[in-house]
Structure formats: C-alpha cells, structure tokens
Amino acid sequence: MMARFKRIVEKHLAGGKPTKPLLDVNCHHNYAEKEVHFGEEVYVTRKGAVRAQEEDYGIIPGSMGAKSFIVKGKGNHESYCSCSHGAGRIMSRTQAKNVFLLMI
User: Fold this and answer.
1) What residues are labeled active site?
2) Distances (CA, A) of 68 to 2, 12, 15, 59
3) Residues 84 and 67: beta-carbon distance below 8 Å
4) Pick from 28, 47, 31, 44: which is nearest to 77 by CA?
5) How far from 25 is each of 2, 28, 101, CA to CA, in Å?
6) Which helix (H) or strand (E) holds 32?
7) What is the pLDDT of residue 33?
8) Could you tell me the pLDDT band of residue 101, with boundaries at 50, 70 and 90?
9) pTM to 2 decimal places
10) pLDDT beyond 90 at 103
C-alpha cells in the first residue's frame, strides 16, 4: 500500500519525478509474533497495539477531523515494547449501539 501511495503522489503531485519521503512509517497492528521478553521466547499478541521498541515508529490515527500522530517507541519492556495505536473510545461499541439505538 505504501509503494502504491508513493507512485500516486509521484504521478499526480510531483510531475512524475521520484520522491524521497522524510520518514517511512510502516507498522502493522492486530497480530501475533514470536519475540524474546524477560529472557523467554513468547508469542506477543498485539490487538489494538503496535510494536514500540526503541527507534520503532508508529501511527496513532485520529478519528474524522482529528489529528493523527507519528510516534516513536521507547522500548518499555514492562509493556512488552507495545503501545496502543488508537485514540481510544469514550464507550464500547456495544454501549454506543445500546445508547444510540434507544434514541431512535
């Protein structure tokens, strides 16, 4: 997806000239991966999280109209070198459905 986006930018905004981004941020979320933590090989499941080892970059997307943020990992071993990738919610999906369906 990143390569496709880069080609579109080059074609339509850069007059066909190659571009060099200031920073490439390519992180995935909602996955499991084998890693070493606390001296043991374990599977870390990141649901709603991205890897945040030192020097890892991530994206915390904003909702419609809200800012998104590029973040840099701190390598916090207590959190298995993870951080959330979402802005969070005031209520769960189920709570929102119940509240707003009652209003209809």
Assistant:
1) 85
2) 17, 24, 27, 7
3) no
4) 44
5) 9, 10, 38
6) strand 31-37
7) 93
8) confident
9) 0.63
10) no
